[in-house]
Write a structure and sequence with these properties.
heterotrimer; A mainly alpha; B mainly alpha; C mainly alpha; A: mainly alpha; 89% helix; 0% strand; B: 3 helices
Chain lengths: 97, 99, 313
């Protein structure tokens, strides 16, 4: 049983790492603000989400698992709002130029 | 297992540090905000991994950082970038002549 | 093990690089963003040094209140360069750099020549922990062993707010500061301002309560509460309060006053100033923390808002 949860954790955390890497590479290499925003949200969403998912079986108790999910939820709310605001600024800029 | 978490955490910080490169290049403040956000989310992930490895209270730091990354990112975009959007009635001083 | 050292060294180099960038860059907003990133990295450094309470404070202050302060300052100053009437010549700059280098080397030498096992009061602090009823030695130091320092700090905050208020012009006195939000805030921001502050209150109260046994404390919790309050104003959901308001001033002063009152009462109920009676230490500490948290939240929020600029309605 422990082996199964450990394997699950390793798979999820590695997946999260992959999305963080994709997000960082996208942030540096994409040509345009909106494209970079797209990359960032993948890291925020899936990267952190997969890591939280992978760490859930490792936590001791419902309370700490809920805390992990709360961290992810707060990060999601902030990231989503920020993306909308940055996207609007970028759209305004491209429509003006 | 603990080693794996440590290496994963280290890699995340390294990866998001790469994104910091975008802070240097810009060209816009929007890109810099996004790079800071990525670093913030990476830091949160690294802290969650540290908590599982045994550091007590790291998840609280992660919670605080997630909350404040949201807060400061939003405050930053609101103050610096939204000049064209919305009605801005805050009084900017008349003597930023180089603007 | 090589990996932890490599990680710590990279983290240190990264922190220094971001700090250097924050100083070197010319645009205000870029510098502010770099400073906030620097605070975040520093919080990670503190966690690596096993000082989680300090990491909480660093993240809360650096990312939260100081970040908001710097953002509004940068918005007012703009991206211009300072207009210096008599700029420092090369000799002057070299002289200052030389002095800074001397000081840095002096500190490094002093630090490296410390004895191998540094003299520390940690065992003594841990030994007396049960008498305070707390489980977190940092909170015990802040609110029991060195409570006088915390009392003075909370009073200093009140003075800082008064100092900021003195920047108001006479006819604005008693009015409210400008709102950090815009007249027509965007929908996502309003949504965030409705969802996040209640979570912030939850997090802040949790930090204060759990500070008794786990890392946390009044200062960290109060800072989160202040950030939640500022967020509601940035989203345009509440208006900045007028500084003449009685409740506001009561909330601002209440914490330090309560602290001072309990301290003076210590003459009567225990044997000295700021002493707690046997067995009731934890209760007193929690009461003090509750008061101080509210005052800190109000004070930091007011500091971030700045002096009043709106005429009294």
């Amino acid at each position: 049983m422990t082996l199964l949860t450990d394997a699950f954790t390793i798979v999820c955390v590695s997946g999260g790492l992959f999305f963080f890497l994709a997000g960082a590479v996208g942030l540096v290499r994409f040509p345009d603000t909106l494209a970079r925003l797209h990359a960032l949200t993948k890291a925020d969403n899936l990267g952190l989400g997969l890591i939280v998912l992978g760490l859930l079986p490792q936590s001791d108790g419902v309370l700490s698992a809920t805390k992990l999910l709360l961290v992810w939820a707060v990060a999601q709310l902030g990231g989503a709002t920020l993306s909308q605001m940055v996207a609007r600024v970028a759209k305004d800029k491209t429509s003006k130029s | 297992m603990a080693d794996f978490f440590f290496i994963a955490g280290a890699l995340i910080v390294a990866i998001t540090a790469v994104g910091l490169f975008r802070v240097l290049r810009g060209p816009d403040d929007a890109d810099r905000v996004m790079a800071a956000q990525l670093l913030g989310t990476g830091g949160v992930a690294a802290l969650l991994l540290a908590e599982v490895r045994g550091t007590r209270g790291a998840v609280d730091v992660a919670l605080v950082l997630a909350f404040l990354a949201a807060f400061s990112g939003v405050a930053f975009v609101n103050a610096s970038l939204g000049e064209g959007s919305g009605d801005n009635t805050s009084e900017h001083t008349e003597d930023d002549a180089l603007n | 093990m090589n990996v932890p050292f490599g990680f710590d060294a990279s983290l240190a180099v990264l922190t220094l690089a971001v700090a250097g960038y924050a100083i070197a860059v010319r645009e205000s907003f870029a510098a502010v963003i770099a400073f906030i990133s620097y605070g975040l990295l520093l919080a990670l450094v503190w966690v690596r040094l096993s000082a989680v309470d300090v990491a909480l404070t660093e993240g809360a202050i650096g990312g939260g209140v100081t970040g908001a302060l710097l953002i509004s300052a940068a918005a007012k100053v703009g991206n211009g360069v300072a207009d210096v009437s008599r700029p420092l010549g090369r000799v002057g700059k070299f002289f200052i750099a030389f002095l800074c280098a001397v000081i840095t080397i002096g500190i490094a030498v002093a630090f490296l020549s410390l004895p191998e096992s540094a003299p520390t009061l940690a065992p003594l602090a841990a030994e007396h922990l049960p008498s305070t009823g707390l489980g977190n030695p940092v909170t015990a130091v802040l609110l029991s062993y060195r409570a006088i320092d915390t009392l003075l700090e909370s009073v200093v905050l009140v003075f800082a707010v008064v100092g900021v208020w003195t920047f108001a012009s006479d006819h604005h006195w008693g009015g409210a500061p400008e709102s950090p939000g815009r007249d027509r805030p965007e929908e996502p921001l309003v949504f965030l301002g409705q969802i996040l502050p209640p979570l912030g209150i939850l997090i802040g109260v949790h930090l204060v309560w759990t500070g008794a046994t786990e890392p946390g404390g009044a200062f960290q919790g109060g800072t989160i509460l202040a950030a939640a309050w500022i967020l509601t104003m940035v989203a345009g959901l509440t208006k900045p309060p007028s500084i003449g308001g009685r409740w506001l001033r009561f909330a601002l002063v209440g914490g330090p006053a309560l602290f001072l009152g309990i301290g003076v009462a210590g003459f009567v109920i225990a044997k000295a100033f700021l002493a707690y009676p046997e067995g009731y230490a934890k209760a007193f500490i929690l009461v003090i923390e509750a008061g101080v948290t509210v005052s800190i939240a109000v004070a930091l929020g007011l500091l971030a808002l700045g002096p009043p600029g709106r005429r009294l309605p």
